[in-house]
Fold these 2 entries.
Entry 1:
Amino acid sequence: MTQAPLAVASRSDRAAPGRVHARVQLQPDHAAAYESLRASISAGLYPERLGGQTTIVLGFQITDPTVRVPPPLRAMSILYPNNLGIALSGLGIETCASAVVELTGAGGCPPDSVMGRGSALAEVPFGPETVHEQATITILRAEDQGGFIALLFDAQAERPVQANIVLTAELLPARVPYGGRISVSLPLVPSLPEAPPVAVVALRATLGPLGLTYYEVRRHRRIAYHPKGIFLPDSCPHGGFPFAASFRFEGGTATSATTRVRCPRPRRDTAHRRGAAGGRARPSKLL
């Protein structure tokens, strides 16, 4: 029995309005097989307050109506807006090693190394059926690589195949209007006997304090607290905060997509200061 696809926020969601644009690049040997390959992405900010702290919610979905299962995903790069204070967010104040994650899973890592969570859906063609594999995702801070923030994606799958897959990622520079990109490498993951490798077709994940608990020691007591969020700038770029993603598949096929998160309302204190500086505040346009 097949399972329903992972629910990924669509471009019509309140926090991520605007059209999603997709582009496909095909290698000659794969043009006929995957000419209908498409990617869509979604993005949201929770809460939506300029000058405040937030959690980024990201999702993508890979589809191709002409084949049962898309080719295996080998790499993806997610670009996020400029002036987001990820490095100053108070997230990932401890790190975890890849060897620890491979041996024990994310549960063996310090709680203060967790930077986000999510879920993913993978598919495998097996005989006349398509097998659906669900996995939970934990995003962890790793030791910096070459001066850049490094991440680990711990994917735990339970059924129908039990597997623990660790993906490596880096936060790298990007050109304006983007402030950086999350570059993720994916290995070929074996599936069922005599079946092709796993194909990741959807993912939804958070990067931020939503649902996270950190701990600190005060006067010999271990105190739980919620970490700070990713800082949003006081102003929003024209047209909203831009997000983009590119995907490369086994065999060389590639596709990309873009979306925008509409500008949140400004914070009351920021709006008040701007109104006072202008001589006369106009609350009707700010609230």
Entry 2:
Amino acid sequence: MKRIPVEELKPGMIFDKPVYVNNDVLLNSYQPLKKSDYERLIEWKIDAVYTEGNLLQKEKFEDELRDIISDISDLANTYDTSDIYFFAEDDTLATSAIEKHQEFISIVKDCFQKVKENKDFNSSELRNAANNLVSLVNKNRRLSFKLIFGTPKLEDYLYYTAVNTAILAIMTAQTMGYSRLHLINIALGGFLHDIGMTKISPDILYKKEQLTQTELNIMKKHPFYGYQILRRINAFPEDVNLIVLQHHERADGSGYPYGFVSSQISDYAKIVGICDTYVAMCHERSYRKAKTPPLIMKTLLKEEIGKMDPNVLKMFTYTVGVYPIGSFVELTDNSIGEVMLQNINVITKPTVKLYTQGNKKIDPPTIINLAKEEREGLSIKRVLASEETKEFLRKIRGK
């Protein structure tokens, strides 16, 4: 292992292999060194850390992300997200998850409405909901991910996207190695990140056409309004408050409300900011069509490379994947399967459970890692729509 003196470390550094202190893991692969961890090393008078990995540079991450853009086919834009996922009616786990998801939405909605009416809301109930959401994601990550692709009612859009942003933020933070306590605070920030919208006129908030520049400037005040609300309530850690204030800030200084650069933005806010952007693209608005997950990812990367923290963006991309877990896909050899796992080094080539080889049923199904598949050119051709998936499953099950 390589010895790295602590004086050579800087907060934000990332290595491609775990970093150790006295045989204990300090950092997992691709996990940035937090300022608090660095200060702890100094306080404990640790001389050096050890790793078999290499220090990664911002440029390397951005090059990898650009490669992903070029690998995503425009043919993927056949269906939008609401056409891809479905829940079987006899799936009791799915039914329970859907009910819990709706409970979280109701809790967030009640919180927002009380703020709008200048009343106090139940912060303990919201904190319990965040804890329960972390448990739900831990219990069934694949099922939790499916929940974000439903179709919200227009009047519940704000609360629906708050919960879904929290789900994705928990998953991304898990990938980055955060502990449960951190996950709960990040979930709270996901729930509350748009609470400042309660101070924006409904005429602007629910306008069907694109906003004018004046209306956009008003809308851009919502992070500051939200921060004021939470500071007044004084019920949550400052880490949660900063998510609300900073989730629209960008590492290059192009965000709002203050134009902060990367070193001024909390890590939590960077995570929630990316997840908020992705969730917004999942749903159709009057001025914008929804897209398939591959094209959402392609659009997000095109727009955000150079703006968002490249490590957080890479970890998010790995978490969600170009082809999300649970989606059914057709390969270039006409085989059909379900995406099971993402591959961090080749994000466009996940691990897939194949149910058919060409047009022939495979029994039992075969699991292949497309990143390691020896057949030249074998890759994902497209994502199946939900009706296609239902028909396919009926066919292979003989129903």
